[in-house]
Amino acid sequence: MSMSPTIQTYLQKKGVAFDLMPHDRAVTAQRIARVAHIPGAELAKGVLLKSDHGYLVAVVPASHQIDLAELSHRLDERLGLASEAEASRMFPDCDPGAVPALGTAYDMRTIVDKRLDGIEDIYFEAGDHTTLVHVKRDAFARLMDGKTEHATIARRH
């Protein structure tokens, strides 16, 4: 597999310039950053969360982890990590475990950690465990479509 059709269509629809960056197979965000030779702060990882109201995608730098307590408090919802099976149902055109940072491409509620707002070069999984999409900061902002909330939702590993 390479880029998910949903992500590819969304990038084209938004008219965003991007590069594809192949890398050795890796599953965890920190490992992907290492094998791709990019800083973890520049790799936007998507994390699928579930609440009593449905699912949402939280997007944080690979160098950080979601602070579920803070995010639950901020959203006034009880949140938990979704299972890999749930992620496979929500993102059927992605490899298992490859949660896209572009929840917006799947019409999903998305919240982005503010740390990504100041990063010039942003990378995210293309839908598999061997390809990254590289975009500039302004393009990433367009992909988030103005519908996303931006907040401090993560802490360093």
From TrEMBL:
InterPro entries membership: YbaK/aa-tRNA-synt-asso_dom_sf, YbaK/aa-tRNA-synth-assoc-dom
Record-annotated YbaK/aminoacyl-tRNA synthetase-associated domain positions: 24-142
Origin superkingdom: Bacteria
Xref: Pfam families: tRNA_edit
Gene Ontology terms, MF aspect: aminoacyl-tRNA deacylase activity
Protein name (record): YbaK/EbsC family protein
Taxonomic classification: Bacteria, Pseudomonadati, Pseudomonadota, Alphaproteobacteria, Kordiimonadales
